[in-house]
Amino acid sequence: MAALQRFGPTQQNLLRALLPAADGLDIEALCTALRVSHNAVRQHLAALLAGGFVTRGRSRASGGRPRACYLLTDAGRDLFPRNYGLIATRVLEHLYATAGPAQVQALLVDMGRELGRGMAVPADADDAAAALASQMDALGYEAQAVRRDGATQVEAYNCVFHTLARAHPEVCRFDLAFMEAASGRPVQHLECLVRGGRACRFRLGERAAGEPPADS
């Protein structure tokens, strides 16, 4: 819902009206659905078209001039909530129950490494921290790079595994495996939200001698 809330009520309702309309809706249909004037619909459509959330579809015959229809773009559909976190948590809980903690931890480490190897992270420590924070932010961690106690660190204020990590704190190995594979540096987990910290805080160590940059 958060992404939709950046729009006003009428634009939210317009986007919702288009969501189930596989063939799109014309202005007349949108006026009826939203109970607003033609001019209001055109103004809101213009804004959503400019933002890339709506596109023109095929025109529809109407007995007179064909009526233009409007469709949601992929960006428009992405505005609607998808509760991946709940699904992922249930999957991991099932794996813990059936495969056991050791197997799940090994799986999470492998996943973190695989994801990290696909990231292009600079060799410089400060640049690496900034790149990691940006990548983690995109994954939902609300992360930023900081200089603290003379060291380059990444702080994350939203643990994507928070509910699961309270019962199984070893899932944090995913974060460490991801960051180490992406940066080519050892990473120390200094502070954890689940263990009462104000953030999940990670310090990047020195790259091993002869270790190539992750983006080389």
TrEMBL record:
Protein name (Swiss-Prot/TrEMBL): HTH marR-type domain-containing protein
Domain of life the protein comes from: Bacteria
UniProt lineage: Bacteria, Pseudomonadati, Pseudomonadota, Gammaproteobacteria, Lysobacterales
InterPro entries xref list: WH-like_DNA-bd_sf (IPR036388), WH_DNA-bd_sf (IPR036390)
